[in-house]
Amino acid sequence: MRICWFANFRGAALTDRLAPLLAATPGLDEALIHTSASTHDPYLDDGPPPSLALQVYFKDIAAMEAALAKGGHLQALADSAVIPGITSATQQAMIARPFPVPDATFRTPVGGLPCTYLVAYEGAAEDLNLWLDYYIRSHPPIMARFPGIRQVEICTRIDWIGFLPFMPVHHMQRNKVVFDDQVALTAALNSPVRHEMRDDFKHFPAFTGPNTHYPMLTRTVRRA
């Protein structure tokens, strides 16, 4: 499992300075740049996605906290020349738990981008241990049956240190499923597996707060 730092932005624009900055991050394992997409989910419509979202992965928490420190490399993300137009921004660090899928080979069309469904459970469970136990045992095997699924990941909370000037949030869990493109994501969301997911949702242990689902086009950045 890896450490993942999330940042979600509203109003932000993607510039050609962002990817090189992320690629130069000391200790970086991988970074994902998500920009808003559109799809159709028969059960949900959570409104417009964030204009920009980041997932920045590290192999350990020390590398992440160094990058987020007061003098850390990722302080440059607060520069409006790197990410202009920000009207709001949130951040959180979590443990990323990958799960197997039948075929992880991407077949994204030339010139296209994979499409990620970013999900966040923003509130609190009555019993978080019970919640995570049920969710991690029950939901990923269903996700793995989505047609065309390429990745499944569930992220859970940790305590962490960072000094970027974005609002920290404390979502109890995040997860994502990743597909070749928007067409493949939409097909999966309208497949029988989506109905299985909804049926399983009805059996979740008690929790409060919203859960959001956003389709995002995804660019991958590797360490320079």
Question: Would you kindly provide a written description of the structure presented here, covering whatever features stand out?
Answer:
It is a single chain. With 224 residues, the protein is α+β, with helices and mostly antiparallel strands. It contains five helices and eleven strands. The strands form two sheets. It has an eight-stranded antiparallel barrel with strand order 1-3-2-11-5-9-7-4. The radius of gyration is 17 Å and the shape is globular. The protein starts with a strand and ends with a strand. The model has no long low-confidence stretch (mean pLDDT 97).
What is the average per-residue confidence, as pLDDT, rounded to a whole number? Answer: 97
Q: What is the helix/strand order?
A: EHEEHEEEHEEEHHEE
Overall shape: globular
Q: What's the story with the biggest beta sheet?
A: 8 strands, antiparallel, barrel
Strand order of the largest sheet: 1-3-2-11-5-9-7-4
Whole-number count of domains: 1
Low-confidence segments: none
What is the share of helical residues? 10-25%
Give the CA-CA distance, first to last residue. 22 Å
Our Rg estimate from Cα atoms comes to 17 Å
CATH class: Alpha Beta
CATH architecture: 2-Layer Sandwich
Query: How many β-strand runs?
Result: 11
User: What fold name stands as the CATH topology?
Assistant: Alpha-Beta Plaits
**Distinct helical segment count:** 5
Instruction: Report the sheet-strand fraction.
Output: 25-35%
What structural class results from the helix and strand content?
alpha+beta
